[in-house]
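User: Okay, second chain of the day. Same drill as before: sequence in, structure tokens out.
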Amino acid sequence: MRFRCFFLAVVAAAWTVTVVLGMHVAGENTVKVLSFNIRYDTPADGKNRWSLRREMVRDLIKQVGADFVGIQEATPGQLAYLTEQLPEYGVLTRTREANHRKGEAVPLLFRRSRWKLDTKEQGTFWLSESPEVPGSRSWKTACPRIVTWGRFVEKESGRAVYVYNTHLDHRSAQARREGARLLAKRIAERRHPDPVLLTGDFNAGESSEPIRCLKGELDGSPVTLRDTFRAVHAEVEDAGTFHGFTGKTSAAKIDYVFVSLGVRVRSAAILHNNIDGRYPSDHCPVEAEVVLPTNRPEPRKAEGGAAAKAL
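Assistant: Same drill. Structure tokens below.
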């Protein structure tokens, strides 16, 4: 069956929202996912500094109501605010620095009422030649880069899904390329062959080597993931996700929600929520609604990784 989905712009309380509508099918294992680079907290942002936009970030996450939210550029103070304001979500997190109390993180938020974390299958690894060493960096990366991941079990059905969240380097092409390869390898080597969701700011356009690696388009790529947005909107040209607080759509699409083969994409959107031209971040969030397979496969070999902290 084919599903039609369309965009509807609505205005409520001066909040311009992009909404994706899709057909609901009873009994389907539908999951909603959000990838959101919230822009780190810095006074240099002036009128766009965190203290003046944090409520917009909170409200957008609440409005989408995703099962899983992959956040990028979250500092400890930002995450503390969101954790307090969004009690419906559990949080899996570890900062990228050697000192776990400092620096940015790529937290995974998961809806507590539906999902529980498999505590034996979770962690954070560094995108470096020493992925288990906290704070490690390689390949001329500007700063440490990490992946936070977990296996989440649906309380009602017992079905599970792996969710990975990352933020690739903004300066070094080599770091992005090698980081994507390491990420693909870790996904391929996960212990259970459950479906995969991958969120992130990849700092890489759609035709770049890191993205092609994750999509299985390069020789030797160990995984084949699908870009949920392109699964639904193959011909859309203005699909930029970084806009620098301007709302423009002409830049490259560098934020993604990927899924493994076998996961059906029902709807997807790049969200342009704003209040009178003020944006919650310098990136557009990316939303997808997908249907997970109903089978429950058997386990396979174990995956390594350092433990992240579940809040």
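Helices lie at 54-64, 76-85, 173-188, 209-214, 228-232.

User: Thanks, on to the next one.
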